[in-house]
Amino acid sequence: MLRIKKTILWVIPLLMVGCTTKVSRVQSDSTIDLTGKWNDTDSRLVAEEMIKDCLSQRWLYKWESENKRPTVIIGKVVNKSHEHISVETFTKDMERALLNSGKVDFVASKTEREQLRDEKEDMQDNASVQTAKSVGEEKGADLMLVGTLNTIVDQEGAKAVVFYQTNLELIDIESNQKVWIGEKKIKKYVERAKTKF
Amino acid sequence: MKLRYYWYASFSFLLFLILDSCTTKSSLRIDQLSNCTLNNDFLSAVESIKKKPGLYGKNNAFLYNMDIGSLFHYAGYYDSSRVYLLKASDILDDLFARSVTNEAAAIMINDNVRPYRSRPYEIVMMHQFIASDYLAQGDVDGALVETRQVQLHFDEWNRKNNKKEEKYDSDGMFHYLSSIAYDAADETSDAMISLFHAVESFQTGPVPLPDAIRNRAFYSFKMNDRESDNSLLKLTPTMQRDGVAGLENNSSEIVVIGYAGRGPMLVEESWWGTWVKDGLLVIHHTNGKGEDETMSLNAPALPPSELKKAEKGQKTKSGTTFHIKFALPAVKTVPSETKKFTVKCSGDPTNYASVIINDLDAQAQKNLDDTKNSTLLRTVIRVVLRTIAAEKAKEKMKTGSVAANLLLNIGTDILADQLEKADTRSCFLLPKTVQIVRIPVKPGTYSVDVSANSGSGGVLSNKVFSDINVREHEKKFVFYSSFK
Predict the structure, then answer these.
(1) DSSP label of B167
(2) Domains of chain B listed by start with CATH number
(3) Would A12 be classed as within a structural domain?
(4) CA of A81, closest CA in chain B: separation in Å?
(5) C-alpha B20: how far from its chain's center?
(6) Smallest Cβ distance to A197: which of B101, B152, B159?
């Protein structure tokens, strides 16, 4: 009887440990796949590849030879995949890397601009003349970054092959000329457990 | 000996209470939410659910989120609706792996002890609601993500059905709304492919192909150089081309989607029979409407071997019972006053009438028909195993007293009876029918007046949606619910 009681006393705390939520900090570039869906690793892989490719291609030479920095605006990256994916995670990474490289300037996106214009309009009535920012002095972009994110899924029961293809393009706004096309492909094999206890 | 009976009685009573509460929860949900929805008071229904999450329990997490998400959608709270519906979708993903312990328990007890995994038409409705939430907010790309997800489901169901046409693996409503969304995204080829699948699904599914869709499809295929689709589908129009408005690809329009009446619920249909040895033979049937039918007969007499035992004062089977019960789900439809919707758009004298693109009563019935064999097989296995176990238990407890035998046997039978429950869980807050009105418009600002009508044409409820600003090549989606 005493042995049973002792065992119970050991087992209960162990069960309770199993029931508590555990959180640990991990490196932001570590790969953790839980469901097989698009995650931070995929977003990072796309951003890394795109940044590397974008900064090494010849489209920049034209501007560098003229000692100029092109101004870029982030356009729409259309999600044509089967998952709700926030494309901002890699476009923002790209924006930051290109901006920090000192080779490119960025202007605010459409929604950001609307906010800024509202603010400027408000300034005209409420801010001092010395500090109010003038309307109609915005910098026009030279290039627009647009893209698509596509997926192809082949699945049978618990097994699936998911192919993600991200394409980003820089388009000269004046001439409609495409100056750079970047591409990143990711292929995943996902096998889900059919049973559990 | 006394201790054994004491434990037996206590355990039975406890189990009876637990199982009884499970079924009461399900009916309580229906009782509590029915009135709110019938009065189109969807937010009160959400409040009721949130106040009593225990009405659902851990095994019904999908239903909890699906019900709240659907109610928010009917109420026009599209952000909130999406949050709950996406959670419901994640829960379904997590339920892909089946728990061995749950499945084993379901074989011994009943299917209600398993987490609710939903029925295929409910999964499609869930994705349709999410897509509609996106469309209501003008996010066509978001809606198309849902289209692609449902296509993966259709492919998988088609594979599992071995491409048998009679089973549900496609949905006319979903494909039709997807074709509108693709058209809004200016993806004409995909719009035509979805339209093809829509017509095909209507032709083979439980919802008949509406003439408005037949004509639109016929002339759209013709216009887009896809006349072979008309041949494949054996489509013939019922009116001239001039009579079909808004055929141009990627044109501006206002799309009104109406949810009419409350969808079906599942109820239990049961059969049981008890043979009181040396006494009675009782056969009982309760149908889906709750109507009972009982038949009592004199049971056959005990065999001579048992009579000899009785003469010697030994334990006999006299007073023991043999009990068997089967319970299967059945569809119960909810009568609805709302039969159709009529829509008037500012600047247009036409009174547009809606067409039915989904009938959830028919879908629920088809689902039960599709799954009848597997449900029956599971039930038979369960009932046989349980009856064997009950008979073994009765054998162990057999006494020399007829009265004691009868009492213990009836107790065991009541316990076995309580264990046998049909899985009547379903998304009972789905609409009875989904209807659509498409109004082609020129770019501009409009107001639309949507009325829910009874069969005789009387207006049951009405709402005016104003300041609908439609740009060139844009489609605006308006949703209206009348559960009366």
Answers:
(1) S
(2) 98-250 (1.25.40), 267-329+373-419 (no CATH)
(3) no
(4) 6
(5) 23
(6) B101
Q: At what angle do helices B61-75 and B120-136 cross, to 10 degrees?
A: 40
Domains identified in chain A, total number: 1
Q: Which of B127, B141, B157, B190 to mutate to test the interface with A (most CBs of A within 10 A)?
A: B141
- 3-state class (DSSP) for residue B467: strand
Residue A22 lies in a domain: no
The dihedral through the CA atoms of B55, B60, B62, B66 has a sign that is: negative
The pLDDT of B187-201, averaged and rounded, is 93
Q: What angle do CA B310, B314, B318 make, to 5 degrees?
A: 50
Mean pLDDT for all residues in chain B: 86
Task: Count contacts between A and B (CB, < 8 Å).
Answer: 47
Q: Chain B within 8 Å of A80 (Cβ-Cβ)?
A: yes
**Yes or no, beta carbons of A197 and B144 under 8 Å apart:** no
Query: pLDDT tens digit string along A109-131?
Result: 888 898 999 999 999 999 999 99
- A196 in any annotated domain: no
Q: Which residues neighbour B414 within 8 Å (Cβ) at sequence distance 6 or greater?
A: B12, B16
Q: What is the DSSP string of B411-458?
A: HHHHHHHHH--------TTSEEEEEEEEEE--SEEEEEEEEEE-TTS-
Query: What is the side-by-side order of every strand in the sheet holding B459-470?
Result: B351-353, B340-345, B444-453, B459-470
Domain holding A58: CATH number?
3.40.50
Alpha carbon B57 to chain centroid, angstroms:
19
Euclidean distance between CA atoms A53 and A95, whole angstroms: 14
Judged against a pLDDT cut of 90, whether residue B414 lies above it is answered with no
Residue A9 placed within a domain: no
From the list A82, A151, A155, the residue facing B156 with the nearest CB is A155
Whether A35 sits inside 8 A of B141 (CB atoms) is no
Instruction: Please enumerate residues of B whose Cβ is less than 8 A from a Cβ of A.
Output: 86, 93, 96-101, 141-142, 144-145, 148-149, 151-152, 155-156, 159
B147: distance to nearest CA of chain A, Å? 8
- Do the chains contact at B99 and A35, CB–CB below 8 Å? no
Judge whether residue A5 has pLDDT over 50. yes
